[in-house]
Protein backbone atom coordinates (compact mmCIF):
# COMPACT_ATOMS: atom_id res chain seq x y z
CA UNK A 1 0.00 0.00 0.00
CA UNK A 2 1.28 3.42 -0.83
CA UNK A 3 1.47 5.99 1.92
CA UNK A 4 -1.14 8.17 0.25
CA UNK A 5 -3.74 5.43 0.13
CA UNK A 6 -3.01 4.68 3.79
CA UNK A 7 -3.74 8.33 4.55
CA UNK A 8 -7.06 7.97 2.73
CA UNK A 9 -7.82 4.96 4.87
CA UNK A 10 -7.02 7.02 7.98
CA UNK A 11 -9.24 9.87 6.87
CA UNK A 12 -12.22 7.71 5.95
CA UNK A 13 -11.87 5.66 9.12
CA UNK A 14 -11.92 8.84 11.23
CA UNK A 15 -14.98 10.16 9.42
CA UNK A 16 -16.74 6.85 9.96
CA UNK A 17 -15.92 6.99 13.67
CA UNK A 18 -17.27 10.54 13.97
CA UNK A 19 -20.55 9.49 12.38
CA UNK A 20 -21.06 6.18 14.17
CA UNK A 21 -22.16 7.49 17.54
CA UNK A 22 -24.49 10.43 17.42
CA UNK A 23 -26.89 10.20 20.31
CA UNK A 24 -25.89 7.89 23.11
CA UNK A 25 -28.09 7.51 26.20
CA UNK A 26 -26.02 8.16 29.36
CA UNK A 27 -26.77 4.60 30.44
CA UNK A 28 -24.53 3.34 27.69
CA UNK A 29 -21.58 5.69 28.12
CA UNK A 30 -19.57 3.32 30.26
CA UNK A 31 -20.27 0.18 28.21
CA UNK A 32 -19.65 2.05 24.96
CA UNK A 33 -16.35 3.39 26.24
CA UNK A 34 -15.40 -0.05 27.44
CA UNK A 35 -16.38 -1.69 24.14
CA UNK A 36 -14.56 0.88 22.02
CA UNK A 37 -11.61 0.42 24.32
CA UNK A 38 -11.60 -3.32 23.63
CA UNK A 39 -11.56 -2.59 19.90
CA UNK A 40 -8.53 -0.34 20.31
CA UNK A 41 -6.73 -3.53 21.32
CA UNK A 42 -6.73 -4.29 17.58
CA UNK A 43 -3.05 -3.40 17.85
CA UNK A 44 -2.72 -7.12 18.60
CA UNK A 45 -2.54 -7.51 14.81
CA UNK A 46 0.57 -5.32 14.78
CA UNK A 47 2.08 -7.43 17.55
CA UNK A 48 1.28 -10.60 15.57
CA UNK A 49 2.92 -9.15 12.46
CA UNK A 50 5.99 -8.31 14.50
CA UNK A 51 6.28 -11.87 15.81
CA UNK A 52 5.75 -13.46 12.38
CA UNK A 53 8.33 -11.22 10.77
CA UNK A 54 10.87 -11.51 13.57
CA UNK A 55 12.73 -14.32 11.76
CA UNK A 56 14.24 -15.84 14.84
CA UNK A 57 15.33 -12.58 16.40
CA UNK A 58 14.78 -13.49 20.05
CA UNK A 59 14.57 -9.97 21.57
CA UNK A 60 12.07 -8.98 18.88
CA UNK A 61 10.05 -12.16 19.49
CA UNK A 62 9.92 -11.32 23.19
CA UNK A 63 8.88 -7.70 22.58
CA UNK A 64 6.21 -8.90 20.16
CA UNK A 65 4.96 -11.50 22.57
CA UNK A 66 4.74 -9.04 25.48
CA UNK A 67 3.00 -6.57 23.21
CA UNK A 68 0.55 -9.27 22.11
CA UNK A 69 -0.08 -10.10 25.76
CA UNK A 70 -0.89 -6.48 26.63
CA UNK A 71 -3.16 -6.15 23.59
CA UNK A 72 -5.07 -9.34 24.30
CA UNK A 73 -5.40 -8.37 27.95
CA UNK A 74 -7.12 -5.25 26.65
CA UNK A 75 -9.26 -7.07 24.08
CA UNK A 76 -10.40 -10.11 26.05
CA UNK A 77 -10.83 -8.22 29.32
CA UNK A 78 -12.54 -5.35 27.56
CA UNK A 79 -15.14 -7.46 25.77
CA UNK A 80 -15.87 -9.61 28.84
CA UNK A 81 -16.29 -6.62 31.11
CA UNK A 82 -18.56 -4.89 28.57
CA UNK A 83 -20.64 -8.03 28.27
CA UNK A 84 -20.93 -8.21 32.06
CA UNK A 85 -22.23 -4.67 32.18
CA UNK A 86 -24.65 -5.14 29.32
CA UNK A 87 -25.93 -8.46 30.67
CA UNK A 88 -27.42 -6.48 33.54
CA UNK A 89 -29.45 -4.34 31.19
CA UNK A 90 -30.77 -7.17 29.10
CA UNK A 91 -31.76 -9.21 32.13
CA UNK A 92 -34.19 -6.46 33.02
CA UNK A 93 -37.41 -7.41 31.17
CA UNK A 94 -37.68 -10.79 32.87
CA UNK A 95 -37.47 -9.10 36.26
CA UNK A 96 -40.41 -6.79 35.85
CA UNK A 97 -42.61 -6.91 38.84
CA UNK B 1 -3.07 -10.74 -6.76
CA UNK B 2 -2.83 -14.22 -5.42
CA UNK B 3 -5.34 -16.09 -3.33
CA UNK B 4 -4.06 -15.32 0.21
CA UNK B 5 -4.07 -11.60 -0.60
CA UNK B 6 -7.64 -11.74 -1.86
CA UNK B 7 -8.81 -13.77 1.11
CA UNK B 8 -7.17 -11.36 3.54
CA UNK B 9 -8.69 -8.42 1.72
CA UNK B 10 -12.19 -9.89 1.97
CA UNK B 11 -11.77 -10.80 5.62
CA UNK B 12 -10.40 -7.36 6.50
CA UNK B 13 -13.27 -5.68 4.73
CA UNK B 14 -15.77 -7.85 6.55
CA UNK B 15 -14.03 -7.18 9.88
CA UNK B 16 -14.14 -3.41 9.37
CA UNK B 17 -17.81 -3.58 8.48
CA UNK B 18 -18.65 -5.67 11.55
CA UNK B 19 -16.58 -3.43 13.84
CA UNK B 20 -18.40 -0.37 12.55
CA UNK B 21 -21.76 -2.08 13.08
CA UNK B 22 -20.55 -3.11 16.53
CA UNK B 23 -19.71 0.44 17.62
CA UNK B 24 -22.98 1.67 16.21
CA UNK B 25 -24.98 -1.04 17.95
CA UNK B 26 -23.26 -0.29 21.25
CA UNK B 27 -24.94 3.11 21.32
CA UNK B 28 -28.43 1.63 21.60
CA UNK B 29 -29.73 -0.19 24.64
CA UNK B 30 -31.55 -2.89 22.73
CA UNK B 31 -28.72 -3.92 20.46
CA UNK B 32 -25.78 -3.22 22.75
CA UNK B 33 -25.06 -6.73 23.98
CA UNK B 34 -25.22 -8.33 20.55
CA UNK B 35 -23.15 -5.49 19.13
CA UNK B 36 -20.44 -6.12 21.69
CA UNK B 37 -20.35 -9.80 20.69
CA UNK B 38 -20.32 -8.85 17.05
CA UNK B 39 -17.28 -6.65 17.61
CA UNK B 40 -15.55 -9.45 19.51
CA UNK B 41 -16.30 -11.81 16.63
CA UNK B 42 -14.91 -9.29 14.13
CA UNK B 43 -11.72 -9.05 16.15
CA UNK B 44 -11.19 -12.81 16.16
CA UNK B 45 -11.99 -12.87 12.46
CA UNK B 46 -9.28 -10.29 11.81
CA UNK B 47 -6.73 -12.42 13.68
CA UNK B 48 -7.68 -15.48 11.64
CA UNK B 49 -7.41 -13.40 8.48
CA UNK B 50 -3.91 -12.22 9.33
CA UNK B 51 -2.68 -15.67 10.35
CA UNK B 52 -4.11 -17.34 7.25
CA UNK B 53 -2.47 -14.68 5.09
CA UNK B 54 0.96 -15.39 6.54
CA UNK B 55 0.38 -19.14 6.38
CA UNK B 56 -0.47 -18.79 2.69
CA UNK B 57 2.49 -16.55 1.85
CA UNK B 58 5.68 -16.50 3.91
CA UNK B 59 4.61 -19.18 6.38
CA UNK B 60 4.92 -18.90 10.12
CA UNK B 61 7.97 -20.32 11.85
CA UNK B 62 7.50 -22.74 14.76
CA UNK B 63 9.38 -20.30 16.97
CA UNK B 64 6.91 -17.56 16.10
CA UNK B 65 4.00 -19.86 16.93
CA UNK B 66 5.47 -20.53 20.36
CA UNK B 67 5.78 -16.84 21.19
CA UNK B 68 2.32 -16.11 19.78
CA UNK B 69 0.80 -18.78 21.97
CA UNK B 70 2.69 -17.68 25.09
CA UNK B 71 1.66 -14.04 24.65
CA UNK B 72 -1.95 -14.84 23.80
CA UNK B 73 -2.53 -17.24 26.65
CA UNK B 74 -1.03 -15.02 29.32
CA UNK B 75 -2.73 -11.85 28.08
CA UNK B 76 -6.16 -13.41 27.54
CA UNK B 77 -6.06 -15.31 30.81
CA UNK B 78 -5.27 -12.26 32.93
CA UNK B 79 -7.79 -10.18 31.00
CA UNK B 80 -10.56 -12.73 31.43
CA UNK B 81 -9.85 -13.29 35.12
CA UNK B 82 -9.79 -9.58 35.90
CA UNK B 83 -12.96 -9.01 33.89
CA UNK B 84 -14.80 -11.75 35.81
CA UNK B 85 -13.51 -10.86 39.26
CA UNK B 86 -13.59 -7.08 39.34
CA UNK B 87 -16.55 -5.61 41.26
CA UNK B 88 -18.98 -3.42 39.33
CA UNK B 89 -18.03 -0.46 41.49
CA UNK B 90 -14.51 -0.34 40.09
CA UNK B 91 -15.56 -0.36 36.44
CA UNK B 92 -14.05 3.05 35.60
CA UNK B 93 -10.58 2.16 36.83
CA UNK B 94 -10.79 -1.25 35.14
CA UNK B 95 -11.52 0.40 31.80
CA UNK B 96 -8.58 2.73 32.45
CA UNK B 97 -6.27 -0.21 33.13
CA UNK B 98 -7.31 -2.09 29.97
CA UNK B 99 -6.92 1.09 28.00
CA UNK B 100 -3.42 1.72 29.31
CA UNK B 101 -2.39 -1.78 28.27
CA UNK B 102 -3.64 -1.16 24.73
CA UNK B 103 -1.43 1.93 24.59
CA UNK B 104 1.49 -0.07 25.94
CA UNK B 105 1.01 -2.65 23.20
CA UNK B 106 1.24 -0.01 20.45
CA UNK B 107 4.29 1.47 22.12
CA UNK B 108 6.05 -1.90 22.25
CA UNK B 109 5.33 -2.65 18.58
CA UNK B 110 6.84 0.67 17.53
CA UNK B 111 9.78 0.19 19.86
CA UNK B 112 10.42 -3.28 18.48
CA UNK B 113 10.33 -2.10 14.88
CA UNK B 114 12.55 0.87 15.71
CA UNK B 115 15.25 -1.19 17.38
CA UNK B 116 15.10 -4.17 15.01
CA UNK B 117 13.83 -2.98 11.61
CA UNK B 118 11.66 -5.80 10.23
CA UNK B 119 12.55 -7.30 6.88
CA UNK B 120 9.85 -5.67 4.77
CA UNK B 121 10.95 -2.19 5.80
CA UNK B 122 14.47 -2.87 4.59
CA UNK B 123 13.66 -4.54 1.30
CA UNK B 124 12.29 -1.55 -0.54
CA UNK B 125 14.28 1.05 1.27
CA UNK B 126 13.83 4.52 -0.06
CA UNK B 127 13.98 7.87 1.62
CA UNK B 128 10.27 8.67 1.57
CA UNK B 129 9.26 5.30 2.94
CA UNK B 130 11.80 5.40 5.74
CA UNK B 131 10.69 8.92 6.63
CA UNK B 132 7.07 7.80 6.94
CA UNK B 133 8.24 4.86 8.94
CA UNK B 134 10.13 7.05 11.40
CA UNK B 135 7.19 9.41 11.78
CA UNK B 136 4.69 6.65 12.46
CA UNK B 137 7.05 4.97 14.92
CA UNK B 138 7.51 8.25 16.78
CA UNK B 139 3.78 8.98 16.88
CA UNK B 140 3.04 5.47 18.03
CA UNK B 141 5.57 5.68 20.85
CA UNK B 142 4.54 9.19 21.87
CA UNK B 143 0.78 8.53 21.99
CA UNK B 144 1.21 4.98 23.30
CA UNK B 145 3.37 6.14 26.23
CA UNK B 146 0.98 8.98 27.16
CA UNK B 147 -1.96 6.57 27.00
CA UNK B 148 -0.21 4.05 29.19
CA UNK B 149 1.07 6.29 31.98
CA UNK B 150 -2.00 8.54 31.86
CA UNK B 151 -4.35 5.57 32.21
CA UNK B 152 -2.34 4.06 35.03
CA UNK B 153 -2.35 7.36 36.93
CA UNK B 154 -6.11 7.71 36.30
CA UNK B 155 -6.65 4.19 37.62
CA UNK B 156 -4.47 4.79 40.68
CA UNK B 157 -6.31 8.02 41.49
CA UNK B 158 -9.74 6.42 41.15
CA UNK B 159 -8.62 3.52 43.34
CA UNK B 160 -7.39 6.02 45.91
CA UNK B 161 -3.79 4.79 45.64
CA UNK B 162 -2.68 8.22 44.52
CA UNK B 163 -3.82 11.55 45.83
CA UNK B 164 -3.39 14.88 44.09
CA UNK B 165 -0.02 16.29 45.17
CA UNK B 166 -0.13 19.95 46.18
CA UNK B 167 2.40 21.20 43.67
CA UNK B 168 0.28 19.95 40.80
CA UNK B 169 -2.36 22.53 41.70
CA UNK B 170 0.06 25.45 41.42
CA UNK B 171 1.28 27.05 38.24
CA UNK B 172 4.45 24.96 38.51
CA UNK B 173 2.68 22.07 36.77
CA UNK B 174 2.28 24.02 33.54
CA UNK B 175 5.99 24.75 33.53
CA UNK B 176 6.88 21.13 34.22
CA UNK B 177 4.53 19.85 31.53
CA UNK B 178 5.79 22.34 28.98
CA UNK B 179 9.33 21.13 29.67
CA UNK B 180 8.19 17.51 29.11
CA UNK B 181 6.30 18.48 25.97
CA UNK B 182 9.23 20.38 24.48
CA UNK B 183 11.61 17.57 25.37
CA UNK B 184 9.31 15.05 23.64
CA UNK B 185 9.17 17.25 20.56
CA UNK B 186 12.96 17.46 20.44
CA UNK B 187 13.26 13.69 20.81
CA UNK B 188 10.49 13.28 18.22
CA UNK B 189 12.30 15.28 15.55
CA UNK B 190 15.67 13.85 16.48
CA UNK B 191 14.23 10.40 15.93
CA UNK B 192 12.74 11.35 12.57
CA UNK B 193 16.15 12.71 11.57
CA UNK B 194 17.46 9.21 11.98
CA UNK B 195 19.02 9.46 15.40
CA UNK B 196 17.71 6.16 16.75
CA UNK B 197 19.24 6.60 20.20
CA UNK B 198 16.80 9.37 21.05
CA UNK B 199 14.03 6.79 21.05
CA UNK B 200 14.62 6.15 24.75
CA UNK B 201 14.42 9.85 25.49
CA UNK B 202 11.07 9.91 23.66
CA UNK B 203 9.78 6.94 25.66
CA UNK B 204 10.81 8.52 28.96
CA UNK B 205 9.62 12.09 28.43
CA UNK B 206 6.31 11.15 26.83
CA UNK B 207 5.67 8.77 29.74
CA UNK B 208 6.41 11.62 32.15
CA UNK B 209 4.15 13.91 30.13
CA UNK B 210 1.30 11.40 30.49
CA UNK B 211 1.78 11.40 34.27
CA UNK B 212 2.23 15.17 34.49
CA UNK B 213 -0.94 15.91 32.56
CA UNK B 214 -3.19 13.40 34.36
CA UNK B 215 -1.97 13.89 37.94
CA UNK B 216 -3.44 17.39 38.51
CA UNK B 217 -6.90 16.41 37.26
CA UNK B 218 -9.51 16.03 39.97
CA UNK B 219 -11.50 12.84 40.37
CA UNK B 220 -14.74 14.43 39.20
CA UNK B 221 -13.22 14.94 35.78
CA UNK B 222 -11.59 11.50 35.58
CA UNK B 223 -14.29 9.93 33.36
CA UNK B 224 -13.63 12.56 30.72
CA UNK B 225 -9.92 11.88 30.93
CA UNK B 226 -10.40 8.13 30.62
CA UNK B 227 -12.62 8.66 27.60
CA UNK B 228 -10.01 10.93 26.06
CA UNK B 229 -7.24 8.44 26.78
CA UNK B 230 -9.43 5.79 25.17
CA UNK B 231 -9.50 7.93 22.08
CA UNK B 232 -5.69 8.23 22.27
CA UNK B 233 -5.26 4.48 22.38
CA UNK B 234 -7.19 4.34 19.10
CA UNK B 235 -4.82 6.89 17.62
CA UNK B 236 -1.86 4.88 18.91
CA UNK B 237 -3.30 1.79 17.23
CA UNK B 238 -3.72 3.67 13.95
CA UNK B 239 -0.12 4.86 14.17
CA UNK B 240 0.98 1.27 14.79
CA UNK B 241 -1.01 0.41 11.65
CA UNK B 242 1.23 2.74 9.65
CA UNK B 243 4.28 1.11 11.24
CA UNK B 244 3.33 -2.40 10.12
CA UNK B 245 1.46 -1.37 6.97
CA UNK B 246 -1.98 -2.60 7.97
CA UNK B 247 -5.09 -0.87 6.64
CA UNK B 248 -7.36 -2.75 9.01
CA UNK B 249 -5.42 -1.41 11.99
CA UNK B 250 -5.57 2.12 10.63
CA UNK B 251 -9.32 2.01 10.02
CA UNK B 252 -10.16 0.41 13.37
CA UNK B 253 -7.78 2.71 15.26
CA UNK B 254 -9.13 5.80 13.53
CA UNK B 255 -12.73 4.73 14.21
CA UNK B 256 -12.08 4.24 17.92
CA UNK B 257 -10.08 7.45 18.08
CA UNK B 258 -12.84 9.51 16.46
CA UNK B 259 -15.69 7.80 18.33
CA UNK B 260 -13.79 8.31 21.59
CA UNK B 261 -13.50 12.03 20.88
CA UNK B 262 -17.26 12.28 20.32
CA UNK B 263 -17.97 10.38 23.52
CA UNK B 264 -15.58 12.68 25.41
CA UNK B 265 -17.45 15.65 24.02
CA UNK B 266 -20.81 14.19 25.09
CA UNK B 267 -19.49 13.62 28.60
CA UNK B 268 -18.07 17.14 28.87
CA UNK B 269 -21.48 18.49 27.93
CA UNK B 270 -23.13 16.42 30.64
CA UNK B 271 -20.89 18.03 33.24
CA UNK B 272 -20.93 21.48 31.71
CA UNK B 273 -17.15 21.47 31.53
CA UNK B 274 -15.09 22.29 28.50
CA UNK B 275 -12.36 19.88 27.52
CA UNK B 276 -9.77 22.64 27.87
CA UNK B 277 -10.72 23.38 31.47
CA UNK B 278 -10.71 19.69 32.30
CA UNK B 279 -7.22 19.26 30.89
CA UNK B 280 -5.57 22.43 32.07
CA UNK B 281 -7.81 23.78 34.82
CA UNK B 282 -6.58 21.51 37.60
CA UNK B 283 -9.10 20.07 40.02
CA UNK B 284 -12.24 22.01 40.84
CA UNK B 285 -11.49 22.26 44.55
CA UNK B 286 -8.38 24.31 43.83
CA UNK B 287 -10.50 26.86 42.00
CA UNK B 288 -13.17 26.95 44.69
CA UNK B 289 -10.86 28.17 47.44
CA UNK B 290 -10.59 31.41 45.58
CA UNK B 291 -14.31 31.72 45.05
CA UNK B 292 -16.80 33.05 47.56
CA UNK B 293 -18.84 29.87 47.26
CA UNK B 294 -16.89 28.03 49.91
CA UNK B 295 -17.48 28.58 53.58
CA UNK B 296 -18.76 27.06 56.75
CA UNK B 297 -22.07 25.32 57.19
CA UNK B 298 -24.38 27.23 59.49
CA UNK B 299 -27.64 25.36 59.61
CA UNK B 300 -27.09 21.63 59.61
CA UNK B 301 -29.95 19.47 60.85
CA UNK B 302 -29.07 15.90 61.58
CA UNK B 303 -31.64 13.25 62.33
CA UNK B 304 -31.90 9.62 63.32
CA UNK B 305 -32.73 6.65 61.15
CA UNK B 306 -35.98 6.31 63.06
CA UNK B 307 -37.19 9.78 62.05
CA UNK B 308 -36.19 9.02 58.48
CA UNK B 309 -38.22 5.81 58.53
CA UNK B 310 -41.26 7.61 59.96
CA UNK B 311 -41.16 10.23 57.24
CA UNK B 312 -40.72 7.61 54.55
CA UNK B 313 -43.66 5.62 55.84
CA UNK B 314 -45.92 8.67 55.53
CA UNK B 315 -44.78 9.52 52.01
CA UNK B 316 -46.62 8.98 48.76
CA UNK B 317 -43.76 9.60 46.41
CA UNK B 318 -40.08 8.99 47.07
CA UNK B 319 -37.15 9.79 44.79
CA UNK B 320 -33.78 8.15 45.36
CA UNK B 321 -30.67 10.02 44.24
CA UNK B 322 -27.74 7.60 44.15
CA UNK B 323 -24.14 8.68 43.90
CA UNK B 324 -20.62 7.37 44.22
CA UNK B 325 -21.02 6.89 47.98
CA UNK B 326 -23.57 4.19 47.25
CA UNK B 327 -21.10 2.44 44.99
CA UNK B 328 -18.33 2.64 47.56
CA UNK B 329 -20.56 1.28 50.32
CA UNK B 330 -21.75 -1.52 47.96
CA UNK B 331 -25.21 -0.70 49.26
CA UNK B 332 -27.18 -1.16 46.04
CA UNK B 333 -28.77 -4.45 47.13
CA UNK B 334 -29.68 -3.09 50.55
CA UNK B 335 -31.16 -0.05 48.88
CA UNK B 336 -33.24 -2.32 46.68
CA UNK B 337 -34.63 -4.05 49.76
CA UNK B 338 -35.63 -0.73 51.27
CA UNK B 339 -37.38 0.41 48.11
CA UNK B 340 -39.12 -2.96 47.77
CA UNK B 341 -40.62 -2.48 51.19
CA UNK B 342 -41.77 1.01 50.33
CA UNK B 343 -43.31 -0.18 47.08
CA UNK B 344 -45.17 -2.96 48.85
CA UNK B 345 -46.73 -0.21 50.93
CA UNK B 346 -47.95 1.52 47.80
CA UNK B 347 -45.32 4.26 47.84
CA UNK B 348 -44.13 5.35 44.43
CA UNK B 349 -40.36 5.01 44.15
CA UNK B 350 -38.23 6.47 41.38
CA UNK B 351 -34.46 6.71 40.98
CA UNK B 352 -33.10 9.99 39.68
CA UNK B 353 -29.94 9.40 37.68
CA UNK B 354 -27.72 12.38 37.05
CA UNK B 355 -25.72 11.90 33.84
CA UNK B 356 -22.43 11.99 35.73
CA UNK B 357 -23.45 10.48 39.05
CA UNK B 358 -20.74 8.16 40.27
CA UNK B 359 -17.38 8.27 38.69
CA UNK B 360 -18.52 7.64 35.16
CA UNK B 361 -21.65 8.24 33.10
CA UNK B 362 -23.88 5.22 33.28
CA UNK B 363 -22.10 4.07 36.44
CA UNK B 364 -25.28 4.23 38.55
CA UNK B 365 -27.39 2.48 35.92
CA UNK B 366 -24.98 -0.41 35.89
CA UNK B 367 -24.88 -0.54 39.66
CA UNK B 368 -28.65 -0.44 40.15
CA UNK B 369 -29.17 -2.92 37.34
CA UNK B 370 -26.96 -5.28 39.29
CA UNK B 371 -29.41 -4.98 42.20
CA UNK B 372 -32.36 -5.82 39.89
CA UNK B 373 -33.88 -2.37 39.98
CA UNK B 374 -36.45 -2.28 37.14
CA UNK B 375 -35.19 -0.24 34.23
CA UNK B 376 -38.41 1.82 34.10
CA UNK B 377 -37.75 3.23 37.56
CA UNK B 378 -34.49 4.86 36.50
CA UNK B 379 -35.27 8.39 35.37
CA UNK B 380 -32.85 10.71 33.69
CA UNK B 381 -32.29 14.19 35.05
CA UNK B 382 -34.39 16.11 32.54
CA UNK B 383 -37.31 13.74 32.98
CA UNK B 384 -37.29 13.72 36.74
CA UNK B 385 -36.51 17.36 37.54
CA UNK B 386 -40.11 18.61 37.09
CA UNK B 387 -41.26 15.90 39.54
CA UNK B 388 -39.39 17.15 42.59
CA UNK B 389 -41.97 19.75 43.75
CA UNK B 390 -44.58 16.99 43.91
CA UNK B 391 -42.28 14.66 45.83
CA UNK B 392 -42.55 13.99 49.54
CA UNK B 393 -39.16 12.57 50.32
CA UNK B 394 -35.85 12.58 48.50
CA UNK B 395 -33.15 10.20 49.69
CA UNK B 396 -29.70 11.37 48.61
CA UNK B 397 -27.34 8.42 48.89
CA UNK B 398 -23.71 9.29 48.55
CA UNK B 399 -24.33 11.92 45.89
CA UNK B 400 -23.10 15.43 46.48
CA UNK B 401 -22.08 17.77 43.68
CA UNK B 402 -24.94 16.66 41.44
CA UNK B 403 -27.50 17.95 43.96
CA UNK B 404 -25.75 21.21 44.83
CA UNK B 405 -28.12 24.17 44.29
CA UNK B 406 -25.04 26.40 43.98
CA UNK B 407 -24.80 25.27 40.40
CA UNK B 408 -28.03 27.14 39.75
CA UNK B 409 -27.89 30.07 42.18
CA UNK B 410 -24.31 31.09 42.77
CA UNK B 411 -22.58 32.70 39.85
CA UNK B 412 -19.23 32.71 41.58
CA UNK B 413 -19.31 28.97 42.17
CA UNK B 414 -17.06 26.82 39.99
CA UNK B 415 -20.03 24.51 39.66
CA UNK B 416 -22.21 27.28 38.27
CA UNK B 417 -23.97 26.20 35.11
CA UNK B 418 -23.65 22.48 35.68
CA UNK B 419 -27.07 20.84 35.31
CA UNK B 420 -28.11 19.47 38.69
CA UNK B 421 -31.04 17.61 40.22
CA UNK B 422 -33.40 20.05 41.91
CA UNK B 423 -33.86 17.96 45.03
CA UNK B 424 -34.38 21.00 47.26
CA UNK B 425 -37.80 21.45 45.63
CA UNK B 426 -39.07 18.35 47.41
CA UNK B 427 -40.79 18.57 50.77
CA UNK B 428 -38.14 16.72 52.73
CA UNK B 429 -34.63 15.78 51.74
CA UNK B 430 -32.59 13.20 53.61
CA UNK B 431 -28.91 13.15 52.86
CA UNK B 432 -27.23 9.93 53.91
CA UNK B 433 -23.58 10.67 54.20
CA UNK B 434 -20.57 9.56 56.19
CA UNK B 435 -19.58 13.02 57.37
CA UNK B 436 -19.49 16.63 56.34
CA UNK B 437 -16.66 16.17 53.91
CA UNK B 438 -17.03 17.91 50.57
CA UNK B 439 -17.91 16.13 47.36
CA UNK B 440 -15.42 15.31 44.67
CA UNK B 441 -15.28 18.86 43.45
CA UNK B 442 -14.34 19.88 47.02
CA UNK B 443 -17.07 22.47 47.11
CA UNK B 444 -19.46 23.25 49.94
CA UNK B 445 -22.96 21.97 49.25
CA UNK B 446 -25.63 24.60 49.98
CA UNK B 447 -28.28 21.89 50.02
CA UNK B 448 -27.11 20.70 53.45
CA UNK B 449 -27.89 24.12 54.95
CA UNK B 450 -31.48 24.26 53.74
CA UNK B 451 -34.28 23.94 56.33
CA UNK B 452 -35.95 21.01 54.57
CA UNK B 453 -32.72 19.01 54.47
CA UNK B 454 -31.79 16.56 57.21
CA UNK B 455 -28.49 14.75 57.39
CA UNK B 456 -28.32 11.11 58.42
CA UNK B 457 -24.69 10.45 59.21
CA UNK B 458 -23.15 7.05 58.73
CA UNK B 459 -22.14 4.40 56.24
CA UNK B 460 -24.82 4.07 53.55
CA UNK B 461 -25.09 0.30 53.85
CA UNK B 462 -25.39 0.32 57.63
CA UNK B 463 -27.99 3.08 57.60
CA UNK B 464 -30.04 1.33 54.95
CA UNK B 465 -29.90 -1.87 56.99
CA UNK B 466 -31.07 0.05 60.07
CA UNK B 467 -33.75 1.59 57.91
CA UNK B 468 -35.01 -1.84 56.91
CA UNK B 469 -35.26 -2.72 60.60
CA UNK B 470 -37.12 0.49 61.44
CA UNK B 471 -39.50 0.03 58.54
CA UNK B 472 -40.18 -3.52 59.71
CA UNK B 473 -41.02 -2.22 63.17
CA UNK B 474 -43.44 0.19 61.58
CA UNK B 475 -45.02 -2.68 59.69
CA UNK B 476 -44.08 -1.32 56.30
CA UNK B 477 -43.97 -3.88 53.53
CA UNK B 478 -45.67 -6.65 55.46
CA UNK B 479 -49.19 -7.34 54.51
Automatic annotation (TrEMBL), chain A:
As for membrane topology, the entry says: Multi-pass membrane protein
Top enzyme category = translocase
Q: Which residues form the NAD(P) transhydrogenase alpha subunit C-terminal domain?
A: 7-91
Name its cellular compartments. Answer: Cell inner membrane
Identify the EC number(s): 7.1.1.1
| InterPro entries for this protein | NADP_transhyd_a_C
Summarizing the function annotation, the protein's role is:
The transhydrogenation between NADH and NADP is coupled to respiration and ATP hydrolysis and functions as a proton pump across the membrane.
- From the Swiss-Prot or TrEMBL record, give the protein name: proton-translocating NAD(P)(+) transhydrogenase
Organism placement in taxonomy: Bacteria, Bacillati, Cyanobacteriota, Cyanophyceae, Synechococcales
